[in-house]
Specification:
The protein contains seven helices and nine strands; from the N terminus they run αβαβαββαβαααββββ. It has 209 residues and is of the alpha/beta class. It has helices spanning 5-9, 39-46, 58-66, 100-110, 124-133, 137-156, 172-181, and strands at 29-33, 50-54, 71-72, 88-92, 116-122, 184-190, 194-195, 198-199, 201-208. 35% of the residues lie in helices and 21% in strands. α4 links the parallel β4 (88-92) and β5. The chain has one domain: Rossmann fold (3-Layer(aba) Sandwich). The longest helix has 20 residues, at 137-156.
């Protein structure tokens, strides 16, 4: 749902254009986790980084390979990357569709001490906007079930069954708990526009202890 160009255009004004996902020194080896169309990998290469991408979608992975990018298919919770083997990680709104604690643990694992991760997440405002402002009833239902699923998860550590539990929004409190458990320091919180008083996106820069 969030991957289409048409849907992405609806978030203009909520996406922070000031947050730099490519702020790594030249020569850094950077993992793009969930690279999508590969645009961020190309930006990283343009500033002198060595980028490698992981993506679950087979069609996206195939097109990226055909365009000459170094990519592989993988789950965020099981990265086929050696421990402490990349200098940085980029991850744009992938975590909401994963087992978030396991995915963040894997990001921490592949970073060496001093390595950095630049990550964005969906906040509560993202799904509130779907629920309260979208004209498509199916999208409103998706927003509602994502909110309910996250509330259930926060209270019980369990998701709703089946497809009902496929998406979570993230909260600062849960994220900080995962960071502490995995040796990650939160070094920057970038401000994000809100909807109905809740952040639409969450932007964090992390450093491995």
């Amino acid at each position: 749902m969030v991957g289409s160009t048409a849907r992405a255009c609806e978030w203009v004004g909520y996406i922070s254009e000031e947050f730099a996902f490519d702020d790594f020194p030249p020569g850094a080896r950077v993992l793009d986790l969930g690279f999508g169309g590969g645009e961020q990998m190309r930006r990283l290469q343009a500033v002198g980084c060595r980028s490698v991408g992981l993506e679950l979608d087979p069609a996206l992975a195939r097109r990226a390979r055909e365009s000459g990018l170094a990519v592989a298919r993988a789950y965020a919770e099981q990265l086929p990357i050696r421990t402490a083997s990349v200098d940085g990680v980029v991850c744009k709104v992938v975590i909401p569709y994963t087992e978030e604690s396991a995915a963040i643990a894997e990001i921490a694992r592949v970073l060496p001490p001093g390595g950095t991760a630049r990550i964005s997440y969906h906040g509560l405002g993202y799904f509130l906007r779907y629920l309260l402002a979208d004209r498509n009833w199916k999208v409103r239902v998706y927003g509602l079930r994502s909110i309910v699923n996250t509330l259930v998860f926060a209270m019980t550590s369990r998701r709703l069954p089946g497809f009902l539990g496929d998406t979570l929004y993230q909260s600062e409190r849960r994220l900080r708990r995962y960071y502490e458990a995995n040796g990650l320091d939160l070094i920057e919180v970038h401000p994000s526009p809100s909807f109905a008083g809740a952040p639409v996106f969450i932007y964090h820069v992390l450093r491995r202890r």
